[in-house]
Write a structure and sequence with these properties.
By secondary structure, the chain is of the alpha+beta class. It is built from seven helices and 13 strands. Strands 6, 7, 8, 9, 10, 11, 12 and 13 form an eight-stranded mixed sheet that branches. It is globular, with a radius of gyration of 22 Å.
Length: 277
Amino acid sequence: MPKFKLPDLDPEVFVSIPTGYDLSLEQLLAFPAFKNWLSTLRHSLSLQQDPIHTFNSDPYKLRGIEIQSIDHFGGNRLGFIKFKTDISNDAKEKLPGAVFLRGGSVAMMLVLQADDVPKGSETDKYVILTVQPRVPAGSLSFVEIPAGMIDDSGTFAGAAAKEISEETDLKIPADELLDITKLALPASPDGGEELQAAMYPSCGGSDEFIPIFLWEKRIPRDQLKDWEGKLTGLRSHGEKITLQLARLEDLWKVAGRDAKALAAWSLYQGLKKEDKI
Protein backbone atom coordinates (compact mmCIF):
# COMPACT_ATOMS: atom_id res chain seq x y z
CA MET A 1 0.00 0.00 0.00
CA PRO A 2 1.59 3.32 -1.08
CA LYS A 3 2.14 5.96 1.60
CA PHE A 4 3.74 9.33 2.13
CA LYS A 5 4.67 11.48 5.12
CA LEU A 6 2.87 14.66 6.07
CA PRO A 7 5.31 17.55 6.64
CA ASP A 8 6.00 19.34 9.93
CA LEU A 9 4.28 16.91 12.26
CA ASP A 10 5.62 15.38 15.47
CA PRO A 11 5.37 12.46 15.80
CA GLU A 12 5.75 11.60 12.12
CA VAL A 13 2.43 10.97 10.39
CA PHE A 14 2.20 8.73 7.35
CA VAL A 15 -0.77 8.66 5.01
CA SER A 16 -1.47 5.28 3.40
CA ILE A 17 -3.42 5.04 0.13
CA PRO A 18 -5.15 1.95 -1.28
CA THR A 19 -3.52 0.45 -4.34
CA GLY A 20 -5.14 1.74 -7.51
CA TYR A 21 -5.85 5.29 -6.31
CA ASP A 22 -3.88 8.13 -7.85
CA LEU A 23 -3.25 10.70 -5.13
CA SER A 24 -0.06 12.65 -4.41
CA LEU A 25 0.98 14.49 -1.26
CA GLU A 26 0.71 17.77 -3.15
CA GLN A 27 -2.87 17.01 -4.26
CA LEU A 28 -3.92 16.05 -0.75
CA LEU A 29 -2.39 19.15 0.86
CA ALA A 30 -4.00 21.37 -1.80
CA PHE A 31 -7.48 19.91 -1.18
CA PRO A 32 -9.28 22.68 0.81
CA ALA A 33 -11.31 20.26 2.93
CA PHE A 34 -8.18 18.37 4.03
CA LYS A 35 -6.19 21.55 4.65
CA ASN A 36 -8.94 22.93 6.85
CA TRP A 37 -9.48 19.66 8.73
CA LEU A 38 -5.77 19.12 9.40
CA SER A 39 -5.16 22.72 10.47
CA THR A 40 -8.15 22.65 12.85
CA LEU A 41 -7.14 19.30 14.34
CA ARG A 42 -3.50 20.32 14.79
CA HIS A 43 -4.54 23.44 16.64
CA SER A 44 -6.95 21.52 18.89
CA LEU A 45 -4.26 18.95 19.70
CA SER A 46 -1.78 21.72 20.52
CA LEU A 47 -4.13 23.09 23.19
CA GLN A 48 -3.43 19.98 25.29
CA GLN A 49 -0.15 21.64 26.31
CA ASP A 50 -2.12 23.89 28.64
CA PRO A 51 -1.85 22.47 32.20
CA ILE A 52 -5.59 22.90 32.74
CA HIS A 53 -6.55 21.01 29.57
CA THR A 54 -8.53 17.81 30.16
CA PHE A 55 -5.94 15.69 28.34
CA ASN A 56 -2.78 17.48 29.50
CA SER A 57 -1.44 14.59 31.58
CA ASP A 58 -1.43 12.17 28.65
CA PRO A 59 -2.13 14.11 25.44
CA TYR A 60 -3.51 12.57 22.28
CA LYS A 61 -1.44 12.68 19.10
CA LEU A 62 -2.21 12.14 15.44
CA ARG A 63 -0.11 9.11 14.46
CA GLY A 64 -1.44 7.99 11.09
CA ILE A 65 -4.09 8.34 8.37
CA GLU A 66 -5.41 5.45 6.30
CA ILE A 67 -7.31 6.58 3.22
CA GLN A 68 -10.02 4.09 2.28
CA SER A 69 -11.68 5.65 -0.76
CA ILE A 70 -11.59 8.75 -2.96
CA ASP A 71 -14.33 10.26 -5.14
CA HIS A 72 -13.61 12.78 -7.86
CA PHE A 73 -15.80 15.49 -9.36
CA GLY A 74 -15.67 16.72 -12.96
CA GLY A 75 -12.24 17.64 -14.23
CA ASN A 76 -10.72 15.02 -11.93
CA ARG A 77 -11.09 17.37 -8.95
CA LEU A 78 -10.99 15.80 -5.51
CA GLY A 79 -14.52 15.57 -4.17
CA PHE A 80 -14.86 13.27 -1.14
CA ILE A 81 -12.28 11.30 0.84
CA LYS A 82 -13.08 8.58 3.37
CA PHE A 83 -10.29 7.77 5.83
CA LYS A 84 -9.47 6.46 9.27
CA THR A 85 -7.15 8.25 11.68
CA ASP A 86 -4.97 6.86 14.42
CA ILE A 87 -5.24 9.37 17.26
CA SER A 88 -4.02 7.95 20.54
CA ASN A 89 -2.11 8.77 23.71
CA ASP A 90 0.87 7.02 25.24
CA ALA A 91 -1.48 4.78 27.23
CA LYS A 92 -2.74 3.44 23.85
CA GLU A 93 -6.17 4.96 24.37
CA LYS A 94 -7.71 5.94 21.04
CA LEU A 95 -10.21 8.52 19.88
CA PRO A 96 -12.86 7.47 17.33
CA GLY A 97 -11.32 8.44 14.02
CA ALA A 98 -13.45 7.55 10.97
CA VAL A 99 -13.87 10.63 8.76
CA PHE A 100 -15.94 11.32 5.67
CA LEU A 101 -14.18 14.42 4.35
CA ARG A 102 -16.23 16.68 2.10
CA GLY A 103 -15.72 20.27 3.29
CA GLY A 104 -18.25 23.01 3.75
CA SER A 105 -21.31 24.31 1.90
CA VAL A 106 -23.91 26.98 2.65
CA ALA A 107 -27.62 26.91 3.42
CA MET A 108 -30.19 29.61 2.82
CA MET A 109 -33.22 30.56 4.86
CA LEU A 110 -35.17 32.54 2.24
CA VAL A 111 -38.06 34.39 3.84
CA LEU A 112 -40.77 36.17 1.80
CA GLN A 113 -43.37 38.53 3.19
CA ALA A 114 -46.20 40.55 1.63
CA ASP A 115 -45.22 44.20 1.35
CA ASP A 116 -48.55 45.42 2.75
CA VAL A 117 -47.70 43.96 6.16
CA PRO A 118 -46.20 46.52 8.59
CA LYS A 119 -42.42 46.34 8.69
CA GLY A 120 -41.17 44.50 11.75
CA SER A 121 -44.21 42.23 11.86
CA GLU A 122 -43.83 38.44 11.76
CA THR A 123 -47.22 38.06 10.06
CA ASP A 124 -47.52 36.29 6.71
CA LYS A 125 -43.91 35.15 6.39
CA TYR A 126 -43.10 32.22 4.10
CA VAL A 127 -39.96 30.15 3.53
CA ILE A 128 -38.80 28.76 0.19
CA LEU A 129 -37.98 25.04 0.36
CA THR A 130 -36.62 22.61 -2.20
CA VAL A 131 -37.90 19.08 -2.88
CA GLN A 132 -35.37 16.80 -4.56
CA PRO A 133 -33.80 13.33 -4.45
CA ARG A 134 -31.28 12.76 -1.65
CA VAL A 135 -29.93 9.27 -2.24
CA PRO A 136 -27.85 9.07 0.99
CA ALA A 137 -31.14 9.45 2.89
CA GLY A 138 -32.84 6.91 0.62
CA SER A 139 -35.24 9.61 -0.53
CA LEU A 140 -36.45 10.77 -3.94
CA SER A 141 -38.39 13.74 -2.52
CA PHE A 142 -36.51 15.22 0.42
CA VAL A 143 -37.85 18.55 1.72
CA GLU A 144 -35.17 21.01 2.85
CA ILE A 145 -34.05 24.61 2.83
CA PRO A 146 -31.88 25.41 -0.20
CA ALA A 147 -28.20 24.49 -0.08
CA GLY A 148 -25.39 25.46 -2.40
CA MET A 149 -22.41 27.81 -2.51
CA ILE A 150 -21.47 31.44 -2.93
CA ASP A 151 -19.87 31.69 -6.37
CA ASP A 152 -16.98 33.91 -7.50
CA SER A 153 -19.37 36.74 -8.38
CA GLY A 154 -20.75 36.80 -4.83
CA THR A 155 -24.13 35.23 -5.64
CA PHE A 156 -25.85 32.16 -4.21
CA ALA A 157 -25.26 29.39 -6.76
CA GLY A 158 -25.97 25.72 -7.36
CA ALA A 159 -28.94 23.58 -8.45
CA ALA A 160 -31.31 25.07 -5.85
CA ALA A 161 -30.34 28.65 -6.75
CA LYS A 162 -30.89 27.89 -10.44
CA GLU A 163 -34.37 26.49 -9.75
CA ILE A 164 -35.28 29.49 -7.58
CA SER A 165 -34.14 31.85 -10.33
CA GLU A 166 -36.07 29.97 -13.00
CA GLU A 167 -39.30 29.65 -11.00
CA THR A 168 -39.41 33.06 -9.30
CA ASP A 169 -36.83 35.24 -11.10
CA LEU A 170 -35.33 35.98 -7.69
CA LYS A 171 -31.59 36.70 -7.59
CA ILE A 172 -29.85 36.44 -4.23
CA PRO A 173 -26.72 38.66 -4.06
CA ALA A 174 -24.24 38.09 -1.25
CA ASP A 175 -24.47 41.66 0.05
CA GLU A 176 -28.11 41.02 1.03
CA LEU A 177 -27.31 37.86 3.01
CA LEU A 178 -27.03 37.80 6.79
CA ASP A 179 -24.87 35.03 8.27
CA ILE A 180 -27.03 34.04 11.22
CA THR A 181 -24.68 31.29 12.40
CA LYS A 182 -21.85 33.81 12.73
CA LEU A 183 -24.21 36.27 14.39
CA ALA A 184 -25.47 33.72 16.91
CA LEU A 185 -22.37 31.71 17.79
CA PRO A 186 -19.99 33.14 20.38
CA ALA A 187 -16.52 33.97 19.09
CA SER A 188 -13.86 31.43 20.02
CA PRO A 189 -11.94 32.67 23.04
CA ASP A 190 -8.26 33.45 22.63
CA GLY A 191 -6.43 30.16 22.93
CA GLY A 192 -9.57 28.17 22.16
CA GLU A 193 -10.39 25.78 19.34
CA GLU A 194 -10.62 27.22 15.84
CA LEU A 195 -13.85 25.72 14.56
CA GLN A 196 -15.89 27.25 11.76
CA ALA A 197 -18.66 29.72 12.55
CA ALA A 198 -21.11 27.20 11.17
CA MET A 199 -23.41 24.30 11.94
CA TYR A 200 -21.85 20.81 11.90
CA PRO A 201 -24.71 18.43 10.93
CA SER A 202 -22.86 15.15 11.49
CA CYS A 203 -19.68 15.79 13.48
CA GLY A 204 -19.53 12.17 14.61
CA GLY A 205 -18.52 11.08 11.11
CA SER A 206 -18.02 14.04 8.77
CA ASP A 207 -16.14 17.34 8.67
CA GLU A 208 -19.03 19.02 6.82
CA PHE A 209 -19.85 22.49 8.14
CA ILE A 210 -22.70 24.71 6.99
CA PRO A 211 -23.01 28.42 7.66
CA ILE A 212 -26.66 29.43 7.42
CA PHE A 213 -27.61 32.68 5.74
CA LEU A 214 -30.85 34.61 6.11
CA TRP A 215 -32.39 36.52 3.21
CA GLU A 216 -35.64 38.39 3.65
CA LYS A 217 -37.63 39.92 0.81
CA ARG A 218 -40.88 41.88 0.80
CA ILE A 219 -42.96 41.30 -2.33
CA PRO A 220 -46.43 42.29 -3.58
CA ARG A 221 -49.18 40.22 -1.97
CA ASP A 222 -50.55 39.15 -5.36
CA GLN A 223 -47.12 37.75 -6.23
CA LEU A 224 -46.92 35.92 -2.91
CA LYS A 225 -50.40 34.41 -3.43
CA ASP A 226 -49.43 33.34 -6.93
CA TRP A 227 -46.28 31.62 -5.69
CA GLU A 228 -48.17 30.03 -2.80
CA GLY A 229 -50.43 28.32 -5.34
CA LYS A 230 -47.61 27.50 -7.73
CA LEU A 231 -44.79 26.39 -5.41
CA THR A 232 -46.39 23.31 -3.89
CA GLY A 233 -43.50 20.84 -4.04
CA LEU A 234 -45.31 18.74 -6.65
CA ARG A 235 -42.99 17.82 -9.53
CA SER A 236 -43.74 17.40 -13.20
CA HIS A 237 -42.91 14.06 -14.79
CA GLY A 238 -39.14 13.59 -14.72
CA GLU A 239 -38.45 16.85 -12.86
CA LYS A 240 -35.65 16.35 -10.32
CA ILE A 241 -35.94 19.46 -8.19
CA THR A 242 -38.83 21.75 -7.43
CA LEU A 243 -39.83 24.40 -4.90
CA GLN A 244 -42.30 24.51 -2.06
CA LEU A 245 -43.54 27.51 -0.09
CA ALA A 246 -44.20 26.94 3.60
CA ARG A 247 -45.32 29.28 6.35
CA LEU A 248 -42.40 30.30 8.55
CA GLU A 249 -44.17 29.14 11.70
CA ASP A 250 -44.54 25.67 10.14
CA LEU A 251 -40.92 25.29 8.98
CA TRP A 252 -39.93 23.15 11.95
CA LYS A 253 -42.43 20.44 11.00
CA VAL A 254 -42.70 20.78 7.20
CA ALA A 255 -38.91 20.37 6.85
CA GLY A 256 -38.33 18.66 10.19
CA ARG A 257 -36.08 15.94 8.73
CA ASP A 258 -33.62 18.52 7.44
CA ALA A 259 -30.94 19.47 9.99
CA LYS A 260 -30.29 22.72 8.09
CA ALA A 261 -33.93 23.76 8.36
CA LEU A 262 -34.14 22.96 12.07
CA ALA A 263 -30.91 24.85 12.75
CA ALA A 264 -32.08 27.82 10.68
CA TRP A 265 -35.45 27.94 12.43
CA SER A 266 -33.82 27.70 15.86
CA LEU A 267 -31.25 30.42 15.08
CA TYR A 268 -33.94 32.68 13.63
CA GLN A 269 -36.17 32.31 16.70
CA GLY A 270 -33.28 32.84 19.12
CA LEU A 271 -31.93 35.90 17.32
CA LYS A 272 -35.43 37.39 17.09
CA LYS A 273 -35.92 36.84 20.82
CA GLU A 274 -32.69 38.71 21.55
CA ASP A 275 -33.53 41.51 19.06
CA LYS A 276 -30.44 40.78 16.96
CA ILE A 277 -32.36 40.56 13.68
